[in-house]
Design a protein that fits this description.
By secondary structure, the chain is mainly α. The protein has one domain. Helix content is about 50%, strand content about 0%. It contains four helices and no strands. The radius of gyration is 23 Å and the shape is elongated. Pfam families: AtuA (PF07287).
């Protein structure tokens, strides 16, 4: 066993100097779109925290009321 581990350790590549990571998160629009198309439940991968609340709100609120919704959400984030 010692000989196999020493041979495998000599074949390892060195780690790069810098590592990079990228993540893609869904916003509220895709959730709203699914609900608009008739979904009862929306299963997502990664999504921003606000999307799970804002998506259904956008589905229920008319487009002309987005400004009011934005003001409500913005002021509640300032007070918490």
């Amino acid at each position: 066993m010692a000989s196999s581990s020493s041979s495998s350790s000599s074949s390892r590549q060195p780690l790069p100097k810098a590592l990079h990571s990228m993540n893609a998160y869904l916003g509220a629009q895709p959730i709203r779109r699914c609900l608009d198309l008739g979904a009862d439940i929306v299963v997502t991968g990664r999504c921003v925290d606000s999307a799970v609340t804002l998506g259904p709100l956008m589905h229920r609120v008319r487009t002309t009321q987005y400004f009011i919704l934005h003001v409500i959400l913005y002021t509640t984030t300032l007070t918490t």
